[in-house]
Amino acid sequence: MLSEMQKRLSSACAPLALAGFIFLVYLFCATRSTLWDRDEPRYAWAGVEMLHSGNYLYPVFNGVLRPDKPILMYWLMTVPLRWWGATELACRFCSVLGVVAACLLTYLCGRFLFSARAGLWAMAILAATPQMVMDGTAAIADAVLLACTTAAMTVFLHSLRSRFTVYHALLTALALGAALLEKAPVGAAVLLPAMAVTWWFARGQIQVGWRAILYALLATLAAGAIFLCWAVPADRVTGGEFFRQFWGHHVAERMLRPLEGHGGNFLLTLPIYIPVVVALFLPWTLFLPGALSALAGARLAGPVGKWFLRGWLVPFFLIMSLAATKLPHYILPLWPALALAVAGTIDAHERRLLTPRDCAWLRRGAWLAAPLVFLLAFLLIAGTKLLPALAAGRGGSAPLEACAWVLASEKWPCAAAGAALAVLGFVALRQHLALRIQAAARTCFAGAIGMLLFFATFMLPAVEKLKVSAPLARAIRAQTAEDVPVATCEYAEPSLIFYLNRGVIHNLAQGSAVIAWAREPQPGVLIIPRDILPPLQRRYGDLGLREIASASGFNYSKGTWCDLVAVRRGP
Which of 25, 138, 193, 343 would bridge 122 by S-S if both were Cys, CB 3.0 to 4.6 A apart? Predict the structure, then answer.
């Protein structure tokens, strides 16, 4: 018995060590920048308001109901906010934990499907992709949602090894219920189609009786009941407003028409997620064609496992493509399945299970990955010369000018990183084309982690110099009492509200609203673009406003340069 326990502890050491490494890397990245507009500070400040008000039933942002997402992320966020205050780490900590949990669950899936070695590769692949890093170090719901959906899929995969029992139904209800509370109805859109596809197409290899279907149905109903235990009271207290805005606008309308300019006609935008996967799954795009070939030919995970992975990938991809509103993080729940497919391909190649056709498709992955890798290396090396010329050619494009400024501020680190990326890319391509697949994967992982640490160490602090919300808020807080109200005009970014930490911030329209505000007798602060005030003062005379702070930079939410001043009225 002691020997068996030692074997189990030894087998657990590698995934736990890798999980600890991922946790430290993501934690470091989560502390390297202020919150990014607009979703991060909306989640973060709603969590702060929840903590201050004691209202844990429905989220509020800047004093207004925020029905965009369900409640779970706000509940989770209040715990680190209570520990560490309103800091970036506190707001992003749950996302970091979500990444670690999703990686460990992906390891379990890889171990069930392939082997422990493939499970470790799946962990590493999932963590070392740009999309995972962006969502896993941000104060948004997607990383925690990924942990919930991956947990539900892990339970389902475990049930395929025997049969779907009461034990699996209970765990599924908990995981799916948490997913619904995190970002309904995405959690159900991952699990339920995968169950239907796997059970139907693999019915000759597994036993799916009426009892299993009944348990799955009861688990789904229990998950829905968990969601309704919160949703019904929240909707009742808000007078039906939460249901109307959440289901009517943020769910139904996003499916039927593009919101905020994201998406379009289905037939025109169905392929839109293909380049997203190619770009944001780097560097593992190098192995993706071979993985899809092996998966299509049933050379990965056996007859049951192949339908499990297909059921995870295909239905959800089509569902998200059908939705009129399209954003890259909408398809994040596919990332563990893609990581598993690539990890299984690496493992299958080592065991000589791939066909010549699969190997040919593996080599073709170079046509997808190489151009993007070498383009990034070229931009890091020559971007300070190239981007200003491109910006001038586009009439002075502000986003390109901002990128050029960031690269120029870290010129030599960028050049060194670009050269290192080019060398690593060349080495990985040579190994890959020679079908030294595991060596190429190790090079890709080293390059991905190295680039991640480079961006976190040099690029994020450089971008901070262009942001205006945090420094302007610090200057205002240093020169005014906490009870002095603040208003804005033409700059109502959520990050400003978070860093001001002054309660409700009113946004004024130009013209008469600014004049009316300036003539009120009590003290107050107005944040306004510098070029708006002089015309008003020429028209209405001296408004008696005193400048107390200013900040210039780049408003990346709108893609424009901005020059803001904070003016004070009253004594």
Answer: 343
> DSSP character for 354?
-
Distance separating alpha carbons of residues 54 and 45, to the nearest angstrom: 14
Q: What percent of the chain has pLDDT over 90?
A: 60
Residues 503 and 440: their CA atoms lie apart, in Å, by 52
Q: Would you call 21 helix, strand, or coil by DSSP?
A: helix
Residue 229 has pLDDT above 90, yes or no: yes
Whole-prediction pTM value? Answer: 0.92
Structure tokens at 434: 């020679």
The answer, yes or no, to whether residue 254 has pLDDT greater than 80, is: no
CATH topology of domain 469-569: D-Maltodextrin-Binding Protein; domain 2 (3.40.190)
Sequence spans of domains, the chain:
2-354, 376-464, 469-569
Q: Which helix (H) or strand (E) holds 554?
A: strand 546-555
Whether the link from the prior residue into 185 is cis, omega within 30° of 0, is yes
Q: Which of 268-277, 483-492, 523-532 has the lowest mean pLDDT?
A: 268-277
Mean pLDDT value across residues 416-443: 93
Provide the 3-class DSSP secondary structure of residue 560. strand
The letter for the amino acid at 6 is: Q
pLDDT at 270: 53
Report the DSSP pairing between strands 64-65 and 486-489.
unpaired
- DSSP secondary structure code for residue 263 in this structure: B
Distances in whole angstroms, Cα of residue 170 to Cα of each of 22, 216, 337, 373: 29, 9, 23, 44
- Report how far residue 192's alpha carbon sits from residue 225's, in angstroms, rounded to the nearest whole number: 16
The span from the CA of 524 to the CA of 550, in Å, is: 16
Mean of pLDDT values over 213-233: 92
